[in-house]
Amino acid sequence: MFVVMSDSHEDRDVIQKIKTHYQNSATAIFHCGDSELSSQDPIWDGITVVRGNCDDDAAYPNFLTQKVEGKKVLITHGHLYFVGMGLDSYASFAEQENADIALFGHIHQPVAQIINGILFLNPGSVAQPRGKYQVKMYAVIEINEGHFHVSYRDLNHQPINTLQFDL
């Protein structure tokens, strides 16, 4: 089980709350950018984080790959792949990187879908939700026998009933 959050926009406390809740149980914790915090902040110990379009700190990478539970996870913010206009560009990049899972932020809205065998996931925003779901949220991914269970959670770590997916 691993945790994905994004777009915290200077809200360090929400990152800490999620990290504290999962740091002893998650195999990985990801932040998809736009934290607006320093890359040297100790909050990032144990969290894989990338640079978003609102992050001025050039020490953040634009993308990373990491093996988690036998799957190759690609993480980026998404603005460099124009995810606000669709996933075509990011899907091409994810395929080039041989990713099993492609995480992204930027649009502040939940997305969980399979494209060409790759799970694409946006965890929504822990600070500034947009679109249909006006809930501050993050996502938990569980892998069981090659299938993904994606559970979107509110900031009280409770599942959001309409945002539970088996893919």
Automatic annotation (TrEMBL):
In the UniProt record, the signal sequence range is none
Kindly give the NCBIfam families that the UniProt entry links to this protein: yfcE
Species of the source: Lactococcus hircilactis
**Enzyme Commission code(s) on record:** 3.1.4.-
Q: So what family is this one in?
A: Belongs to the metallophosphoesterase superfamily. YfcE family.
UniProt-listed SUPFAM superfamilies: Metallo-dependent phosphatases
Q: Does the keyword Metal-binding apply?
A: yes
What are the names of the required cofactors? a divalent metal cation
Name of the protein described by the UniProt record: Phosphoesterase
User: What superkingdom does the record give?
Assistant: Bacteria
Limits of the Calcineurin-like phosphoesterase domain: 2-145
Q: What Pfam families does the annotation carry?
A: Metallophos_2
One function term, GO molecular function aspect: metal ion binding
Query: Which keywords appear in this protein's UniProt record, sorted alphabetically?
Result: Metal-binding
